[in-house]
Design a protein that fits this description.
The complex is a heterodimer of chains A (362) and B (396). Chain A is α+β, with helices and mostly antiparallel strands and 362 residues long. Chain A contains 11 helices and 10 strands. Chain B has 396 residues and is an alpha+beta fold. Chain B has 3 domains: 83 residues, no CATH class; 108 residues, Beta Barrel (Butyryl-CoA Dehydrogenase, subunit A, domain 2); 149 residues, Butyryl-CoA Dehydrogenase, subunit A, domain 3. Classes of the chains: A alpha+beta (362), B alpha+beta (396).
Chain lengths: 362, 396
């Protein structure tokens, strides 16, 4: 049993943390959001740090990182509230490519690793998910509508889930294809998401009939990374709040000297440590399979959601008026944490799934 | 990062389990699993069994008669005996005063006291709290005055758990009335059979009498009863209180009882169907399981950091605070499973647990619920732990 990071992992954490604190402060982030949600120089810089190559196997030119490395990256992204779609364009995509034709896979991995190719996973549909996608594939053409695709309008290509031959398949579609129409809109947390309409778009199948497994693996990887991202955001929110408590004065003294506020800050710390524990648990358990993995990840998300709500709401409360303004960072942390609560399965979804799977694994 | 225990640690766990299977009487196990306080005989039998294996002082190094386990093995041991469930070993002796004696005591004190702790020949209780010194422990007023080559101790202690079973008490007493609050306190080892020591039990809201007032009425003790230096008792008390770290979360205890509660809830029919199938009950149970898993991971992180860096972690306050909350919420579920059967109050004339109607555990549930309110009060209340987090970790 060992919860310490290796030297390589610590180096990864330190270099990414340094890069983001130099390049991605609150003002820089505001500018990125104004200019469309992706800064080319930041994106290239992340690529140079090896962040994009991490999840790909070494034989495809990647770094062969595991879930702990992904956890480290996600936490730093969360701490800086990075809006660039690392999770949606890289972390969630890599598991979808595992069974693809080796030549295609190596080509995609190489271009994703250096930051020159961004893929979005077009999976969710406007209606609540049915057993199979309403989007269909036949004779090399794909048709249907996908919704809530994060960074859909900034992607170079999509991986699309579609019904085929009575099952589900995964298909690669170029965004430039004339059969693709993209409608993009901003999100609460400074990102962009899109609704994408496919009308007979040219599509190439990627999976080997194992699409459902690949989709579940991608969801697990994304969920584990999201838990870690939330921990980074919660950690930053806590320290922003304690800094504020030490500097803001009322009644002639720093408000952090009032016990009523100190105890709320202590509650935030407890919520953070419990969440951090479960993000680590999620990372390690995301490599398992089946019900054990799913139950463990649901347990993690339940804790993350509870902690995120407690920390986000308390942080805003302790900041007082500035906490509810767009001009101050803390409100943006709260908004991001709230969106994390709602996505990758909300509290009730994961409580249900846990009960169905027989509770938290021993 | 690796959440798995090593094969050697897993073998060790099996060894502990086998020992429990061979040595913990079924009657004790059943009694404890209902969350009843152990009888004196149950504690005695269990400590003797552990002592015969050399395990009754699991945190002690080999040179003082302990097994010399590292922090991970200690953790596994406590997890397993709490989950079994067995009676707690008498921690006032093994985890509290024992380490104070072998760290600060004289050779003569070590030779005299330590072997008697291991066999429970000395059953220790803790003379810290006083009517005017609870969370503000340094406000103790019990005083010790030099008298020839000994001391005379005079004062009153309270909330003294199991003082009625104990024959030894360690006492914080003021030896310099003029010094600053924390600086005039000394640490004494007192034989409770000495003239002037008397014990009055206090009945708690669960019906039990496990806590007491202890009166020290001009008790004359020899100089050899003073631990370490005069007026340094506060340092030893802080050492003692900081000594038990990862065990205070009591994850094994809560997990073991939650499994029992889940089973009872599957058997308990409420409004025509098993309680476990009621969504609201199920949700509460699931929430608790999740937070308990998080707490288990937090305990292991603290352990891992201690192993790696060799220093205690202020996050220990989180373990105490969350651990107390888990134990209390577990007993809330227990109470809910008992439902209306929990309304009965057992006859106080000792007709025993089966003197009431309902299942044989029904009276244990409200008792456990009321009893467990203490865990967020003792050992540094939840509010004190939050003060520690705010100051030591958050810098407020």
């Amino acid at each position: 049993m060992n919860f310490e990071l290796s030297d390589e992992q610590r180096m990864l954490k330190d270099s990414l943390s340094r890069f983001l604190s130099d390049r991605y402060d609150f003002k820089a982030r505001e500018r990125v959001i104004r200019e469309g949600g992706l800064d080319g120089a930041v994106w290239r810089g992340l690529g140079e740090l090896g962040v994009f190559a991490l999840p790909f196997p070494e034989e495809d030119g990647g770094l062969g990182g595991g879930p702990v490395e992904m956890m480290i990256v996600a936490e730093e992204m969360g701490r800086a509230l990075v809006v660039e779609p690392w999770l949606a364009a890289i972390a969630e995509i890599a598991p979808l490519l595992v069974s693809a034709d080796p030549a295609i896979r190596a080509d995609l991995a190489a271009r994703m690793a250096d930051g020159s190719l961004r893929i979005a996973f077009a999976h969710r549909e406007p209606q609540a998910e049915a057993e199979r996608p309403a989007t269909t594939f036949a004779d090399g053409k794909l048709s249907g509508t996908k919704a809530r695709v994060i960074h859909g309008a900034m992607a170079d290509a999509f991986i699309v889930s579609a019904s085929v031959d009575g099952g589900t398949g995964l298909f690669l579609v170029e965004t430039a294809d004339p059969g693709v129409t993209i409608r993009s809109q901003p999100t609460q947390d400074g990102r962009r998401m899109a609704e994408i309409h496919f009308d007979g778009a040219a599509a190439r199948r990627l999976d080997q009939g194992d699409a459902e497994t690949l989709i579940a693996n991608a969801a697990a990887a994304a969920l584990a990374a999201t838990c870690a991202e939330a921990v980074g955001a919660m950690d930053a929110a806590l320290w922003l709040t304690t800094d504020y408590l030490k500097t803001r004065e009322q009644f002639g003294r720093p408000i952090g000297t009032f016990q009523g506020l100190q105890h709320q800050a202590a509650d935030m710390f407890v919520a953070l440590e419990q969440a951090r524990s479960m993000a680590m648990y999620a990372a390690v358990m995301s490599e398992r399979t089946g019900a054990e993995r799913d139950a463990a990840l649901s347990a993690a998300k339940v804790q993350i959601n509870r902690s995120a709500k407690r920390i986000g709401q308390t942080a805003v409360q302790l900041h007082g008026g500035v906490g509810v303004t767009m001009e101050y960072a803390i409100g943006h942390y709260f908004k991001r944490l709230t969106m994390i609560e709602l996505t990758h399965g909300d509290l009730d979804h994961h409580m249900d799934r846990l009960a169905r799977l027989g509770g938290v694994p021993a | 990062m690796d959440l798995n225990f090593t094969p050697e640690e897993e073998t060790f766990r099996q060894e502990i389990r086998q020992f429990i299977a061979d040595n913990l009487p079924e009657e004790t196990r059943r009694h404890m699993s209902q969350l009843r306080p152990p009888t004196r005989d149950m504690v005695h039998q269990w400590v003797q069994a552990l002592a015969s294996r050399g395990w009754s002082c699991p945190r002690w190094p080999v040179e003082y008669g302990g097994p010399g386990w590292d922090a991970v093995r200690q953790y596994i041991f406590f997890e397993e005996i709490q989950a079994a469930p067995s009676p707690d070993i008498v921690s006032f002796g093994t985890n509290m005063v024992g380490p104070v004696i072998f760290t600060f005591g004289t050779e003569a004190q070590k030779a005299h006291y330590l072997p008697k702790i291991a066999t429970l020949e000395h059953w220790w209780c803790q003379g810290f709290s006083e009517p005017g010194a609870g969370s503000d422990l340094a406000a103790v007023r019990t005083k010790a005055v030099r008298d020839g080559d000994g001391w005379v101790i005079d004062g009153q202690k309270t909330w003294t758990t199991y003082a009625h079973r104990a024959n030894m008490i360690f006492v914080l007493a003021r030896t310099d009335p003029h010094a600053k609050k924390q600086e005039g306190i000394s640490f004494f080892l007192v034989d409770m059979s000495l003239p002037g020591v008397s014990v009055r039990p206090i009945q708690t809201i669960d019906g039990d009498r496990e806590i007491n007032e202890v009166f020290l009425d001009n008790v004359r003790v020899p100089a050899s009863c003073l631990v370490g230096e005069e007026n340094k008792g506060w340092d030893y008390a802080k050492f003692l209180l900081g000594n038990e770290r990862t065990g205070i979360a009591r994850v094994g205890m809560t997990r073991g009882r939650l499994q029992m509660i889940e089973q009872l809830a599957a058997e308990r029919i409420v409004d025509g169907r098993p309680l476990i199938e009621h969504a609201r009950f199920r949700d509460r149970l699931t929430e608790l399981q999740v937070e308990l898993k998080a707490l288990e991971m937090t305990v292991m992180r603290v352990l891992s950091a201690e192993q790696a860096k060799g220093k205690p972690n202020p996050a220990t306050s989180v373990l105490k605070l969350v651990g107390a909350d888990m134990q209390q919420r577990m007993t809330e579920l227990y109470l809910q499973v008992a439902g209306e059967d929990a309304v009965a109050w057992p006859d106080q004339d000792g007709t025993g647990p089966n003197g009431i109607m309902g299942p044989d555990w029904a009276d244990a549930a409200p008792a456990a619920y009321f009893n467990m309110r203490k865990v967020s009060i003792y050992g540094g209340s939840t509010e004190v732990q939050k003060n520690i987090i705010a100051k030591a970790i958050l810098g407020l």
